[in-house]
């Protein structure tokens, strides 16, 4: 039997944990397959995606900065990819069409949003208007949160997202420190806090005691903000669960096996972050 080949494309891509995740499951379920990192230039995107058509690649995950850029290169967008204009999973369907799907929305919902009770009366703040933000917003909408605000350093990018998600309240970046105190669900969808990157210039003081803070970042697992909020008894989540759950859904779409998230896998992933 021919070995199947999967890859994650992005730039830069060296820090992705997706190969660890998928190769663990391939081994566990005796699937003859390999999952690799493919550092890709924008000009090569079309060629890489076409490899799906001839079976050279059996599935692709897409990460920054290509989640929108691959859209014109697939034959059809389905479900959450269609609603967010953001693709993270590509495969060939039974009609030989190259399909773009989004499993980030599921990843977010499965990872944290089930922790949100009485969603219809909660206020959510999305910090950031970059590549992951449409998935964050749509996952909040699907979780029935109605009051959703967005705040981003570059204001125009928030306004651009409001064209797609008209219900968004758009806040000015300079008001973040003050306004954040009004929210029940706060999601960091910026790259602030990422290893070797800049961080928020202030602590998130004075949050509601029952607020939850969700970070889309998993490297490091405990960012400066998460450390501060934990010390102040605010419930926090890091991005590792989101990574695992989006990977679980991609794995299912490609292999029709719903892989288990066991402790050995979690320990393995955490060990790679040290
Ligand atoms: P892109 O915006 O190219 O899609 P991204 O990594 O998906 O890149 O998104 C980065 C997010 O982190 C953006 O919301 C970005 O804000 P801008 O739109 O203003 O660039 C945010 N971000 C990155 N560095 C930041 C910083 N130093 N201060 C505030 N926000 C920052």
Note down, in words, how this protein is organized:
The protein has 274 residues and is α/β, with parallel strands linked by helices. It folds into two domains: 4-102 and 241-271, Rossmann fold; 106-238, Rossmann fold. Helix content is 34%, strand content 20%. It has helices spanning 18-28, 45-53, 79-84, 104-111, 133-142, 155-164, 176-179, 224-231, 240-255, 263-272, and strands at residues 4-10, 33-39, 59-62, 76-77, 89-92, 98-101, 123-127, 147-152, 169-172, 185-188, 212-215, 235-237. The strands form two sheets. Strands 2-1-3-5-6-4 form a six-stranded mixed sheet. Helix 4 (104-111) crosses helix 5 (133-142) and helix 4 (104-111) crosses helix 9. The longest helix is centred in the C-terminal third of the chain and has 16 residues, at 240-255. The protein binds 2'-monophosphoadenosine-5'-diphosphate (ATR). Residues 64-65, 128-131, 152-154, 157, 190-192, 198 line the site of 2'-monophosphoadenosine-5'-diphosphate. 2'-monophosphoadenosine-5'-diphosphate (ATR) binds at residues 64-65, 128-131, 152-154, 157, 190-192, 198.
Topology, element by element:
Elements: E1 4-10, H1 18-28, E2 33-39, H2 45-53, E3 59-62, E4 76-77, H3 79-84, E5 89-92, E6 98-101, H4 104-111, E7 123-127, H5 133-142, E8 147-152, H6 155-164, E9 169-172, H7 176-179, E10 185-188, E11 212-215, H8 224-231, E12 235-237, H9 240-255, H10 263-272
Parallel strand pairs: 1-2, 1-3, 4-6, 7-8, 7-10, 8-9, 10-11, 11-12
Antiparallel strand pairs: 3-5, 5-6
Helix pairs in contact: 4-5, 4-9
The site of 2'-monophosphoadenosine-5'-diphosphate (ATR) has 14 residues, from loops.
